[in-house]
Amino acid sequence: MRKFSAILFGLALLLGFQVGSAFADSKLDSTVDKLIGIDYEYGGTTTSGFDCSGFTSYVFKQLGLKLSRSSKEQYELGDKVASEDLRAGDLVFFNTTGNGVSHVGIYVGNNKFAHSSTSKGVTISDLDEKYWAKRYIGARRVMDSDTYQKVAVDAEQAA
Asked: Within 10 A of 87 (CB to CB), how many other CB atoms are there?
């Protein structure tokens, strides 16, 4: 019974993310969804394992966009974005080591971001979770409006 409850809970979380996603059915959504659960691997850039910037670089490559390899380099790209103006596809950055930019993820809407975490692998987290909120540095917009419409807007809205 406990195993069945855990499965239902996991399914509810997954469906809750899908339904609540700001970009359901977009190319960005489907690309990220396929990677959820892949293990963290330091220096990893493939579906065998990702580090944080390897994950963001991989996702953007699938969308036809090239990113620099490291989180620090990615933080220099695009335009700064205020947290209240975030949109799907923006990069969000964190200081997890005490030495400036050290972690990056992709904003996916509803105050959530996709990233490769050392403890959970590729996952979705909330920007308001205590750990992430304390370490948030800022965000960068690396997609122009046309690219955003093509890859990050709900397929039905774009039609």
From this structure: 18
